[in-house]
Design goal:
Blueprint (H helix, E strand, L loop, with lengths): L2 H12 L25 H10 L2 H5 L18 H18 L4 H10 L8 H11 L6 H12 L10 H8 L10 H25 L9 H7 L3 H16 L9 H19 L2 H23 L6 H8 L5 H10 L3 H12 L8
Helix pairs in contact: 2-5, 4-5, 4-9, 4-11, 5-8, 5-9, 6-13, 8-9, 9-11, 9-12, 13-15, 13-16, 14-15
Amino acid sequence: MNIRESMEERELENLSPFASCSRHSRGRKREEEECDIRTVYQRDRDRILYSKSFRRLEDKTQVFLDYQRDHYRNRLTHTLEVSQTARTVAKALHLNEDLVEAIALGHDLGHTPFGHAGEQALNQVSRDGFVHNLQSVRVVEFLENGGKGLNLTWEVRDGIKNHRISGSPRTLEGQVVRLCDKISYIHHDMDDAQRAGLLTEDDIPITLRMLLGYSTKERLNTLVHDIVESSTQRDQISMSPEVGAAMMELRTLMFHNVYQNSIAREEEAKARNMLIELFHFFTAHPQEMSEDYRELIEQKGETLERVVCDYISGMTDKDSMDKFNQIFVPKCWPVY
């Protein structure tokens, strides 16, 4: 018995009967020889971690478009916080931590520059539409690894696809990530909003503070404990009705005070307009995209609009701004 097989045996012995054990995975689209050290979900996690799309998350906006401050979250730190919170819940519930980590690390790989503002821009102009969870699946199935994709297991792809609030993951591990994604962004966006002066503790209704806690850290602790207590020895991941409703109230508060704040909306409008202009430019001039994207159209029969969305969503914030300046901002003529 090799190391991988030993780990698979330990999963079967120690994990919850509702957990997704590596040995019972529904497998990959393309069969591969098994690793003698790592389980299938460990390999998936590693493939995501070493992908180009994962590295680019470091320069993609979470909420705050402020490059003068170091402490605001970006899409990468959001992803890491989701992973950590989800692994805490999974460990407490005796679920498969490797599967949870792989889903969490991959769930936002398809996100655009400038967060949801960028997503809205591409969804507005593309006839095919654009939603980041489906783009994340497209990244891991098709765009990464020179067009071959990462060939991830069905369970990881299902968790990535269904991580939005409207999603229905088929595994408990996917359900953990889905909930922990919401908990994480409510927690850290509120923390960033307080740092930015857009929100204070007094803006949070006292009834919510009495129930959930009097600081962002206390509220995160309450939400995590509630998931664990509500989901122990059950075949689904859930929160208690009272705490779940309170979390959604916090989310609504964030929309009113932060996500739809007049300053935020003004800057997001600039980001949307910029990406829309880039979309129109590259659909009119596809030869200006890099060769690997042009090949998707010329050799693999992908539609022009779909590939332009791939190209723009793969950019970082800085890349998109640099590209916009290069194309649309006039430069001084050289003096001879």
